[in-house]
């Protein structure tokens, strides 16, 4: 009996062992059906691994790997209410959107957007995906901007607070399934849109050295950041990101960071400035849409400029003079300081662009929407500014005191000359607009005064829309600027290289000499015309336009020498991925 019991026990043990082995093998086989699970661990995607989960499918008798990665977006929060706790999350296409610097993230998500260590930004990644490094750099960029440019002048719930209407870098938590990934993918990837990646790269200070979308060959580099693209079969364009903090920050365009930390010359973080960086004049209302100006070459840029001028109803003869290919090429390659084409183009930009500095911020840095080394404009150079100011002063001395609006224009201009003489006359070593060391209160006061004047001109032009449309006034001014600039250019052509100042000043005076022609062009377009005061009304509107252009140009500090990307890329919603 004892032998039988021993035999039975041994058989039972063997059977249980076999059962355990079989069960283990079954479990192993079941988990092996969870494709990609090992590639969604902390060693690969960092803290995002906490969002990885397995889903059991009885019908298929297998596990499915679900993982979460970020969809990187730019979000303008102006239209959303900021609650007392801050805007923790809100809806974007029915998904949760999290600000990269939101202070109230859920505990399980906090590490996904904050650096593990402050000095870990450029450490070797090993098996890690590169988008975790990109997130850390974006977090650092936005956080340092927030610290440097958000004085506590307004409560965070104020609708005019800087964070409320700036454009913030945010992420959508996107759950994905490994089942739908192409077989070539070995690690989870983040996603975005091509236009968003273009904008983010420009904010980080990169310049696009190669853009060949059809072949998937794109490369951006600058300030130690590098983006390099490839084509993944079945998916599309995918970028690989790298960062080297020891790289020379000044070698490719504007520097956003010193090696020692944050630099003040960072672009204004708002959608309008992003558009300017992509060669687009952002819409400011008045039924004028965004105006793209940058093509893949000079010829395509001329076509876009011609289309923009046509949309503004500029005279055909004026368009031909401005967009002649050889003139644009001369403007681009020879001397931006003397080309007469510059006056109408740069004037147009100053008149159509919205006021860009954010309320409560001293940041005035923008990229310019055309490739140029200087804004040759009557609204920018001190010589034509002086000419315009003196002519308006003389006119007001002879004017009927009852004509109060034009006197108010002069008073505003006089105030700028008296209070901000260095800025008005472009003495950059003393000017407030591009002085990072200027007291915060002084710079904010300067910007706010310009904002008030610019808003006043907007109100005025809206009030006269029933009689004179803003777009018609701008179109007539472009013709005036073209005629005046070419006339002055021919007059001073033999002395331009030695002393262009006389050319610039004379152009300002000729602007005013051509006012009767502007009145003749606009008079037939007036609604409810009155022959007695048509010319006075048009001249009043034009001087208000001049004030608007000067104020806009005084309010921004332009980053020169940037390599612009074709304007159409800003709107490109093609899905792209970051490896």
Notable characteristics:
single chain, 579 residues, alpha+beta, six-stranded mixed β-sheet, 17 strands
Describe the fold and architecture.
This protein has two domains: 70-268 and 567-578, no CATH class; 280-559, no CATH class. It has 19 helices and 17 strands. It has helices spanning 2-32, 42-45, 107-110, 131-149, 162-165, 194-203, 271-277, 298-311, 316-323, 325-333, 342-352, 382-398, 404-419, 421-424, 440-463, 470-491, 501-513, 515-522, 534-554, and strands at 53-57, 62-76, 89-92, 95-99, 167-177, 190-193, 207-212, 217-222, 225-232, 236-243, 257-258, 261-262, 280-281, 291-292, 365-367, 557-559, 575-578. The strands form five sheets. Strands 6-17-10-9-8-7 form a six-stranded mixed beta sheet. A five-stranded antiparallel beta sheet has the order 1-2-5-4-3. A hairpin with a 2-residue loop joins strand 3 and strand 4.
Helix content: 40-55%
Topology, number of strands: 17
Shape: elongated
Secondary-structure content class = alpha+beta
Query: How many domains make up the coordinates?
Result: 2
Mean pLDDT: 80
Strand order of the largest sheet: 6-17-10-9-8-7
Distance between the termini: 69 Å
Catalogue the unreliable spans. Answer: 79-94, 117-121, 151-162, 250-264, 330-334
* Largest sheet entry: 6 strands, mixed
